[in-house]
């Protein structure tokens, strides 16, 4: 049976238990001669702390735990799934995909499982693909996960990037439905900007080639991010035939509180309608949107019938949005 719509029937998330505050990070970096301060980090980014995974904790492990929690919220079991998509830029391996490892870990064999690579827009890409597959009859119940251990690809000697990121995972279960659900989704990329945010390394002939750490032109990313988050929000609302006033909650990718403020201001959405977790989680790339979504669902802010606009932006350069009725 093909469904006309898909809808979110459960959310879940997980953060590694180890919290590193700005003060702790500043002290650790300082002991190695790297000069930064809590004040610089808070003023420029809004970040106050991040969760970091211990050695050996992988994206697949975090993804599977977030998935278990989303399934429990949906009152479904792993064998109810026929699709698993994991958005990650920090997969466990070159292959198999993190999604296949999650499928094995959950005990959900048989359905389709694959990873999506769109960096910080990864969750929105994966979500839109799962929605399309459900509406197209290729799947009925999908687990869509954003999971990252970005701490593994950071250059901990580069104060311009290492203070910005954290680890974690968030997930939703999307199920076929006769009522929406997902009202509209829009995805974009412009590879001409690939060099402003990248981890330009690989494994080749058994050795690491290129530069295996994240590099970024922060100001170029900032300007592009604010511009595309504005345009894709309007485009997605237009596609659904809804106005900005119809948005009950906006969940932008949690990169930087200044990007969130600027985006909300341009759209005319008050910050009271924006879910903010970047202060506590830092930037968790593909995990940031489902982590923030799960937080707001569980604390009761997001209620049945409300419209939630999720917006991603990241390396590639990629961006996209999905508008959902809960
Ligand atoms: N502590 C202290 N000083 C620092 C630090 C630090 N951690 N990092 C950089 N600086 C210094 C620089 O060396 C520079 O010093 P100088 O003037 O003596 O050369 C000064 O601060 C200003 O550096 P800029 O890079 O120009 O700082 P800017 O005001 O642009 O802030 C930031 C940097 C926060 C990264 C900003 O550009 C930004 O918000 N960019 C958006 C990108 C972002 O958030 N990326 C996250 C990942 S991308 C994504 O998720 C889409």
Protein model, in words:
- The protein is α+β, with helices and mostly antiparallel strands and 326 residues long.
- Helix content is 34%, strand content 26%.
- Strands 1-7-6-4-5 form a 5-stranded mixed beta sheet, with helices on both faces. A 4-stranded mixed beta sheet has the order 8-15-14-13, sandwiched between helices.
- A hairpin with a 2-residue loop joins strand 10 and strand 11 (207-210).
- Helix 3 (59-74) crosses helix 4 (98-106) and helix 7 (218-240) runs parallel beside helix 8.
- The site of acetyl coenzyme *A (ACO) has 24 residues, from helix 2, helix 6, helix 7 and strand 14.
Structure described in brief:
The chain contains 10 helices and 15 strands. It is an alpha+beta fold and 326 residues long. Strand 10 (201-204) and strand 11 form a beta hairpin.
């Amino acid at each position: 049976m093909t469904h006309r719509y898909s809808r979110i029937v459960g959310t879940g998330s997980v953060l590694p238990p180890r919290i590193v505050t700005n003060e702790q990070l500043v002290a650790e970096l300082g002991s190695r001669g790297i000069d930064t301060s809590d004040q610089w980090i808070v003023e420029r980014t809004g970040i106050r702390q991040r969760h970091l995974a211990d050695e050996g904790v992988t994206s697949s492990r975090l993804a599977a735990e977030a998935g278990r929690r989303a399934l429990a919220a949906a009152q479904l079991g792993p064998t109810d799934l026929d699709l698993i998509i994991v958005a990650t830029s920090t997969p466990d391996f070159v292959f198999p995909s993190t999604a296949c490892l999650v499928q094995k870990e959950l005990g959900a064999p048989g359905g389709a499982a694959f990873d999506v690579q769109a960096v910080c827009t990864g969750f929105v890409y994966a979500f839109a693909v799962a929605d399309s597959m459900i509406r197209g009859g290729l799947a009925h119940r999908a687990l869509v996960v954003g999971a990252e251990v970005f701490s593994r690809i950071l250059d901990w000697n580069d104060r311009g990037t290492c203070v910005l990121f954290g680890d974690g995972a968030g997930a939703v279960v999307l199920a076929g439905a006769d009522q929406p659900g997902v009202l509209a989704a829009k995805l974009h990329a412009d590879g001409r900007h690939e060099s402003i945010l990248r981890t330009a390394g690989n494994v080749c002939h058994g050795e690491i080639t290129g530069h295996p750490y994240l590099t970024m032109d922060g100001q170029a990313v900032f300007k592009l991010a604010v511009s595309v988050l504005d345009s894709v929000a309007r485009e997605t609302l237009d596609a659904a035939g809804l106005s900005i006033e119809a948005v009950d909650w906006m969940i932008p990718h949690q990169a930087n509180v200044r990007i969130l403020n600027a985006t909300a201001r341009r759209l005319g959405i008050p910050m009271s309608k924006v879910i903010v977790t970047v202060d506590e989680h830092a930037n968790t790339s593909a995990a940031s949107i489902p982590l923030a979504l799960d937080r707001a669902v569980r604390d009761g802010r997001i209620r049945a019938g409300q419209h939630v606009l999720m917006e991603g932006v990241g390396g590639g350069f990629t961006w996209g949005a999905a508008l959902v009725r809960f």
